[in-house]
Amino acid sequence: MSTSTKLGDEFLRIPKLEVSGTNWVIFKDRFTWALDARGILDHIDGTNLEPADPISKEVRAETPLVLSEGQAKLVDEWKKNVKEWKQGEAVAKQQIASSIPDSLFMKVRAKGTAYEIWTELGNHFEKRSRMVSIDLRRRLQELRCADKGDIVEHLSTLRTMREDLASMGETLTDNDYYAIIMGSLPTSYDTYLSALNATSSVLGKQLSPDDLMLTITEEYE
């Protein structure tokens, strides 16, 4: 494993992790991709541990310490591997530190390795992200536009909420999203929507959610 690649702009493109954890899923994916591109992903997935000293504690305790030629070579190789491992650790830990808010950094900085820090973040946000996404999905399903409300603004809110769900790893199918859009409109649109659905049925093709929003916007305007 080599960490000789210089830090580049790709690190700056990682969105900061929100304290609330609302962007944890997309942050996690982009973060792991960045470390994978650097060849140091194994520092946070638990597969790259600090190289073990090839000389036992008992031998090290001997005074004076006398190593055979073979042991000396093992120690030299071990020192080289430890140095490389520490370089990878430093880059991984610095990347975490630069991608999280100060309040989170204060909570995890005492952890020893990059793997331990990353695991702590995961334990903290996986459950929280799930609860946030459940609440957001509920609010999306319950959102209604007032009879004389701004349809364009309402549809924009629906679109944003769906994108927020996607960023948390919750995929809303087109059929579900279509139904949510239809059910969120004022009753004054019932006749228009019935005609729209009848036309789609005759043509044998249902509109996509984006096309549905477009036709509703045109009707509103």
The first-to-last residue Cα distance is 59 Å
Domain count: the total is: 2
> What fraction, in percent, of the residue positions are helical?
55-70%
Structural class: mainly alpha
Structure description:
It is built from 10 helices and no strands. The protein is mostly helical and 221 residues long. The chain folds into 2 domains: 9-126, no CATH class; 143-220, no CATH class. The longest helix has 31 residues, at 69-99. The N and C termini lie far apart (59 Å). Residues 1-5 have low confidence and may be disordered.
Structural topology:
Layout: H1 9-12, H2 24-38, H3 57-60, H4 69-99, H5 102-108, H6 114-142, H7 151-167, H8 174-184, H9 190-203, H10 209-220
